[in-house]
Amino acid sequence: MTLSYQLRAVSLDYVGDIQIQVLENSSPARLLWQCELPETQDAELTLLEAMDDRFLVAVTNKGKVFLGDLGRRQMPQVAELTCSFDSATWLEPAQQRLWLAGHFRQQPLKGRRLLALDLMTGTLAADWPIDDRDLDLTTLTRRSDGQFAFYGRNSKPGYKFREHWIHSINPDNGEQQRCPLPSKPTPENITVRPWLFQDKARGLALMPAANTLTQVGEDSFAFEVQLLDLNLGEVVWQRVVRHINLAQVGDEHRHRSLGEALGRIVAGQYAHTDSDAWQQLLSCLTGAWFDPELPEIWLGWQDGTLQKIGLDGQRLSPLYRLGEQAANGGCRSPIYFDHERLVPTGRNLDRLTLAYGFECDEHLEATLPEPMAAAPLEEEPQWLACRPLMGQRLEIPETLQAQPGPSGCVHITTTDLHSAEGRQQALAQLLRLLPALQENLCDTQRGDCGWLGRLLGRVKPRQEAPRRALYLAFSDGLDRTLSEKQFFHEAIHHEGCAPLIARLIDHFSRWPCAARLVGHDGEPPLANAAYALCLAPEQLPLLANYFCAIGGGEEVSPFHINRTLAVIREHHAGTPELAAFLATVPWPYNDATFTKHERDPYDDWGEDD
Question: Is residue 394 within 8 Å of 32, Cβ to Cβ?
């Protein structure tokens, strides 16, 4: 289905609600419409997909279901199927139906179930209990025969107890079947890294093979992978794809203990106490991307290498090592740390895109050579030229960007949030936006601005205006996001950003409505931007104006009392700049004895789902 638009989600870590953006199919992309999903600040999306040119669906990992209508510019919640975070979805656009597998928490749907939701009415069309408690619900896949399939495995640590299987459910009558797999799964899952890589469109899953371990050199081992076909309920093949040595598996100080444990596994003397070593070896495979247009899989490894194999398991390329051109004319790895995740993410003609790092938030682009052919397993990796991947900034019309969302969010975009240039772009964009933001947020027609308004207010006091929310969300062309706290904490250290942050605070301090605005979670507006400037003595007069603008009094936020003012007093103690600052700011900012209890956000966390 070819659509006239594309979808994007922007979410910050526990800050504000998830933002849904509808973008024009253009280059660069242009924002057509955006909305917020209420009460989703602690959730993640498991589905964001279009049903057609008009309707779109978003589902969170907690079971909230939203249906967007582009014609009406609305995206209401149609269901709240409270469930655990490890839920999964499957959308049937033609039937306007959503299938949801999860561990549900409220009666009458309590327990592990597979549900079908009619999106137009918000009612359940099917409800089947899931018999097996050891399934990975996130692997929900629609098979070619119309049934749903899951991957399942037990969690017993002993080798002889380890088993895995494919579990299927007939969506018409709820009948269920388990198909045991003849191979062994990875040892007990003790790693935070993914070890199962799926192609849900084809019903395939790739994972390291853990039947046996073969040593091929003094410190070198054969690495096997296996392909599961959820349509057939079987292991299609298991093959050696590379050789890997201890230096590529773990740190040097662990080589001896790691080698001894792997040696016992090779000799068949395996005990469950060696699971850690075996899992560490198997976790060297950090990514697998199934090409949707070709029968190929690209594998990424933690030693900064990658390779291509076919859907039949045959090796189709040598082992490549990513490299950038160094100053001396040679090649060097662009990945700074050893044993980082490397994940192939896509292909555009002859360019392969990759992500790397602990959170896979750094991106590369490699140009693929032609032709490619497999090399002997014992051959050293070949260098493959790559370069940082550049993102395109999203274009947002000022009329949309300057209108905060219901939660007060204003979205700022740039090309690269991790570079000084990209952060300067974001700050420059924000500065250009300030006049329009001020116009939308400040009621300039109110008579209480100026001496006449204050005089009339004494005669006939006005009801205090409600406080309006304002906070910033930053994103870039590579889908990375930062909150205000994260952005300003980093930006203040980038060359050229400090003067722009100072201009931001100076401009905001002149807003007549500054005292009537509030940031996220009750913090003062732009609190983290002000905090970023507090070490510079030349910025104290500017900060004094900021504190005068947001106002003082008994009900001030504890943010500046416990952070900004504490740092200013300690860092500038005994200086004339501090004396002038304290003489200017209102109470209680100039009172060193004033204290304000600050709520610990972790106190609000309930039992983990």
Answer: no
The residue assigned the tokens 């050789």 is 243
> Omega of the bond prior to 588 within 30 degrees of 0, cis?
yes
Please determine, for residue 491, whether its predicted confidence score (pLDDT) is greater than 90. yes
Which amino acid is present at 444?
T
Rounded to whole angstroms, the Cα distance separating 81 from 392 reads 37
Give the mean model confidence (pLDDT) for residues 351-380: 93
Closest of 204, 201, 206, 207 to residue 230, by C-alpha: 204
Residue 451 clears pLDDT 50, i.e. is over it: no
Distance CA 10, CA 48 (A): 11
**Can you give the pTM of this predicted structure?**
0.90
**Chain mean position to CA 126:** 32
Q: What is the DSSP letter of 188?
A: S
Sheet holding 164-169, edge to edge: 135-142, 148-153, 164-169, 176-180
* Spatial CB neighbours of 372, under 8 Å, sequence gap ≥ 6: 308, 316, 317, 318
**Per DSSP, what are the bridge partners of residue 24?**
5
pLDDT digits (tens, 9 = 90+) for 209-234: 988 899 999 899 999 999 999 999 99
Percent of the chain with pLDDT over 90: 76
**Nearest CA-CA partner of 241 in 211, 259, 221:** 221
- The pLDDT value recorded for residue 326 is 73
What was the pLDDT predicted at 495?
A: 80
- What is the distance between the alpha carbons of residues 528 and 577, in angstroms, rounded to a whole number? 21
Decide if 31 contacts 45 (C-beta within 8 A). Answer: no
Strands 331-332 and 111-118: unpaired
User: What span, in angstroms and rounded, lies between the C-alpha atoms of 54 and 58?
Assistant: 14
pLDDT of residue 269: 87
pLDDT higher than 60, residue 278: yes
Per the listing, tokens 């009558």 go with 173
Rounded to an integer, the average pLDDT of 13-27 is: 91
CA angle 328, 334, 340 (to 5 degrees): 145
- Average pLDDT (569-575) is 96
Look at residue 4 and tell me whether its pLDDT is greater than 50: yes
> In sequence order, what E strands does 311-381 have?
320-325, 331-332, 342-348, 351-356, 362-367
Cα–Cα distance for residue pair 449/472, rounded to 1 Å = 26
Please check whether residue 374 is in contact with residue 318, taking contact to mean a CB–CB distance below 8 angstroms. yes
* pLDDT per residue as tens digits for the range 34-72: 999 999 998 999 999 999 999 999 999 999 999 999 999
In sequence order, what are the residues at sequence separation of 6 or more whose Cβ sits closer than 8 angstroms to the Cβ of residue 529?
Answer: 484, 488, 501, 504, 505
| Burial of 82 from C-beta contacts in 10 A (0-12 / 13-18 / 19+) | middle
Q: How far apart are CA 182 and CA 185, in angstroms?
A: 10
Residue 467 vs residues 74, 513, 515, 517: alpha-carbon distances, Å:
25, 9, 8, 5
Q: At what angle do helices 540-550 and 497-508 cross, to 10 degrees?
A: 30
CA 476/CA 392 separation, integer angstroms: 8
Compute CA 221 distance to the chain's CA centroid, rounded to the nearest angstrom: 34
What are the percentages of helix, strand and coil residues in the chain, rounded to 5?
25, 35, 45
Residue-wise DSSP of 58-90? EEETTSEEEEEETTTTB--EEEE--B-SS-EEE
b/e code 253-262 from CB counts within 10 Å (16+ = b): eeeeebbebb
